[in-house]
Design a protein that fits this description.
Elements: H1 2-15, H2 20-31, E1 36-39, H3 46-57, E2 61-65, H4 72-76, E3 77-82, E4 87-92, E5 99-103, H5 110-113, H6 117-122, E6 124-127, E7 130-133, E8 139-144, H7 157-160, E9 165-167, H8 174-182, H9 186-191, H10 199-211, H11 216-231, H12 241-257, H13 265-276, H14 293-299
Parallel strand pairs: 1-8, 1-9, 2-5, 5-8
Antiparallel strand pairs: 3-4, 6-7
Helix pairs in contact: 1-3, 2-12, 10-12, 11-12, 12-13
């Protein structure tokens, strides 16, 4: 299983140059059963990463371009009247896929953004009073532009909390960007990429992730990190119990990718920033500067 995961990551790294840590975290997010938010400038490879994951993992893929006039029905689907049968027929929307790219999610209205909440939390959608399950595995990669750009709506905290991780790709290192200029168009590489894993393999990895052992000392370390955020004056609120569970799930996935069946403190540290960065909001009325995830890790002693 570890060898197959390494082959899949190597294939993605050949398409997204110079971003090995981010692609590993994205893969980790998938096998942990979570969803991923990528916040960055246009043109740094967010869409390519999502499409590359779908190709390499052999998953069904759909992309939704979020705009200000996008409606919930454009995502979920709608019931249409069939004159031949005299009954309504449900036409499923693009959300009925395994890997969904919600591109520029913060350009849609809050009502449209909220159409994803049930799907991300329960892997199902309710339309016209009927609940319909989504394919498994179901993985959402949402991208958003920086909030200071025109025409964007900030994601509410309830929606942010549904994302297991938030990443930023950033500009590639100079050597990787030079290679990008010398290579053929990487979109051609993406089009020719064959699947290395399949749906059954991804489900098996997700099941194996849940089975990775979390010792009491590792759980106490996560709890100490969570408690530190709650005791810090510069934060509006600390991590919720769901935030602590998210750290645990991500650490289990990181340990699995390292070929281990138990979580180490180092696994928790590797995923901590990606898991909690979007969950920690500064207190607007406080003069105290809130700590960064790295500063929280430095302040809490290892077990």
């Amino acid at each position: 299983m570890q060898k197959a995961a390494e082959q899949a990551l190597a294939a993605i790294d050949a398409i997204i140059l110079g971003k090995a840590e981010q692609t590993r975290l994205a893969f980790c997010c998938l096998i942990a059963g979570g969803h991923l938010l990528i916040e960055d400038l246009p043109g740094v490879g967010k869409t390519t990463l999502a499409h590359g994951l779908a190709r390499v993992l052999g998953l069904g893929y759909q992309r939704i371009q979020f705009t200000s006039d996008l409606l919930p029905a454009d995502i979920l689907g709608v019931a249409v009247f069939d004159s031949a049968s005299g009954a309504f027929r449900f036409e499923s929307g693009p959300i009925f896929t395994q890997l969904l790219l919600a591109d520029e999610i913060n350009r849609a209205s809050p009502k449209t953004q909220s159409a994803l909440l049930e799907a991300m939390e329960e892997s199902q959608v309710t339309v016209e009073g009927a609940t319909r399950p989504l394919p498994a595995p179901f993985f959402v990669i949402a991208t958003q532009n920086p909030r200071d750009q025109l025409g964007t709506y900030p994601l509410p905290e309830s929606q942010l909390d549904r994302f297991l991780m938030r990443l930023s790709l950033g500009y590639p290192p100079a050597a990787a960007e030079r290679q990008l200029l010398l290579d053929p168009d990487h979109r051609d590489l993406l089009a020719g990429q064959t699947a290395i894993l399949d749906e059954a393999s991804v489900k098996a990895m997700q099941a194996a992730t849940r089975a990775v052992h979390v010792a009491p000392a590792a759980a106490d370390y996560i709890l100490a990190l969570v408690q530190y955020t709650r005791d810090t004056a510069g934060l509006r609120q600390g991590l919720s119990p769901r935030g602590g569970l998210a750290v645990r799930r991500a650490a289990q996935a990181w340990a699995l990718l390292d070929g281990r069946d138990a979580v180490l403190p180092e696994d928790i540290q590797q995923v901590f920033a990606a898991v909690v960065g979007h969950r920690l909001q500064p207190r607007p009325d406080s003069a105290e500067i809130p700590p960064t995830p790295a500063e929280i890790l430095a302040a809490v002693p290892l077990p």
